[in-house]
Amino acid sequence: HIAHVDSADINFRVGMSAVRAAHYYPRGDIRSVGQWLATHVRPGEVVITGIPSLEQYYGGFDYFFLDEEDLRYEAYVCQDGKTERWTNHPVLYGERALKPIVASGRRVYASLYPDDEDRLLAVAQSEGWSVSRVRTSGYGQTDVLLIAANAGVMNAPSAE
Length: 160
Description:
This protein is α/β, with parallel strands linked by helices. The chain is 32% helix and 16% strand. The chain is built from 7 helices and 6 strands; from the N terminus they run H-H-H-E-E-H-E-H-E-H-E-E-H. The chain is globular and about 50 Å long.
């Protein structure tokens, strides 16, 4: 493991059993998420993340998302209750805060930890939002979702 720690396979636990991988800190390919967003996001589109390390690779996101069940609130949100401590971005706390952004009709890209993504997908289904996975990582669980209030936004061309 140590001799090849700089390889993608070791770094992202490729081919490792779940039991063995559980002994290591989980990793996702955040750099490629940032590169994908930089290439694909157009002016007027919204990007949210719940992964603070994305800031190092893509500083253009609009909101930091924390699910209402997320235990990181105290550690991540400033005393004003509106600003994420490590990235200085506005906080969307819970799905209710996300609703007006999705309802705006703009494309909303989201890159979240898997647990938050699962809860967001459940809310999206109950709200009737269209959600598609527009980027899937070859390493780890760092994907990008496209969320829209209706399918027309999903199929519309990106703003230039």
